[in-house]
Amino acid sequence: xxxxxxxxxxxxxxxxxxxxxxxxxxxxxxxxxxxxxxxxxxxxxxxxxxxxxxxxxxxxxxxxxxxxxxxxxxxxxxxxxxxxxxxxxxxxxxxxxxxxxxxxxxxxxxxxxxxxxxxxxxxxxxxxxxxxxxxxxxxxxxxxxxxxxxxxxxxxxxxxxxxxxxxxxxxxxxxxxxxxxxxxxxxxxxxxxxxxxxxxxxxxxxxxxxxxxxxxxxxxxxxxxxxxxxxxxxxxxxxxxxxxxxxxxxxxxxxxxxxxxxxxxxxxxxxxxxxxxxxxxxxxxxxxxxxxxxxxxxxxxxxxxxxxxxxxxxxxxxxxxxxxxxxxxxxxxxxxxxxxxx
Length: 342
Description:
By secondary structure, this protein is of the alpha+beta class. 20% of the residues lie in helices and 29% in strands. The protein has helices at residues 4-9, 15-20, 26-38, 94-100, 104-113, 143-147, 202-205, 221-224, 232-235, 282-290; strands spanning 57-63, 66-74, 80-83, 116-118, 123-125, 135-139, 158-162, 167-168, 174-175, 183-184, 187-193, 209-216, 219-220, 241-249, 260-265, 268-274, 300-302, 324-329, 333-340.
């Protein structure tokens, strides 16, 4: 699993990152990045007694050089976190944790009983879900994305898949594999399933959702057009699915169909949309999928991307080595991923 930003920051910020953020001491810069991507509220330093408590915003992380995976929660401003897997009878793996079946009230009680810590530079963020059973994607699910391709909106959802080898964390790197010359971006709201789900109605579908995270559906457009039009190779290369920074419980999101989502490359805005532009809403996507297959806890559904992908700009634009992609969704957080050579 790539952790290149973390490794870069142990030395000094790259020149690209220095253009986006002030050049400061590496450990301070790393802590700033952590708070910046995790926080959805006030991000400046406060006195310890004023720090917000962690809430139902779940992260997987490592502590320094300790390779033991841990599960924790963070505050809305990203300044504090608490480890749940250290003594709250909670699994250290998010997927196993989902299967434990805790209610939101039980989780809040557990959070109240664990020790809160100030965000620090020894924390290494992992993908919040490391081993999902399925990563299901939806193509052409935003009106603007259809329009930029001069296509009519589909009458049925266009489903395809990515594999878990594509997953990397919210500060990890995207590899510009030598087999592709047309690397593209797509910011997406990702749904994380909570329970086993089969043959559910639209009315009941949202009850099977645990929460939401950000996904960056990196795509090799040249390979997406090859193999008879099959998306698999062009979508599933290693590092082609950064996710994070946290899985935010559904109770923390007012209306998932009214969230802004943005993508910038090297600080230049490429995508700026709202989830209300979805053609097929989340409840319908879940209901449709569950009519064909069983959805399980931890399965991820990428719900589509708004207009502004590189392939359909005039002239087309593609990612290159050194580029920095920032993905942001309201109430969820941000990710910052750098493109590197193989």
